[in-house]
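The authors assume throughout that readers already know how a fold can be written as discrete tokens. A single example would do more here than another paragraph of explanation. An entry of this sort, consisting of the sequence and the corresponding backbone structure tokens, reads as follows:
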Amino acid sequence: QQQELLPYFAHAGCFIHASTHEQWGLVVNEAMAAGLPVLVSNRCGCFEDLVVEGINGFGFNPDDKEQLTKLMFKVSSGEIDLDNISQSALQHIHKFSPDYFAQGLIQAVEYALAHQN
């Protein structure tokens, strides 16, 4: 399914996820992995973990159309450096990769084994 999204991501300047309720929103991970700045609803479960405000994207209240409109204008007007935000999105999303998780798990197990009483 992710492969189907890649052509769309390749032509996008940013990704907007305007969900009014969602547990996580895996498509946000996929958009960031494609190097897209993200505008994510603050009601999406991934918002707090994935979006670093102004660094790799922006959050918004999905009921506030004016707020989203202003963010869309900000992104499309050249007011912000999308290249930097794109790079930050790529760097941040790697912290959520299976390899990164596995490495953290290995470190936790090694620490626990080394500190047994």
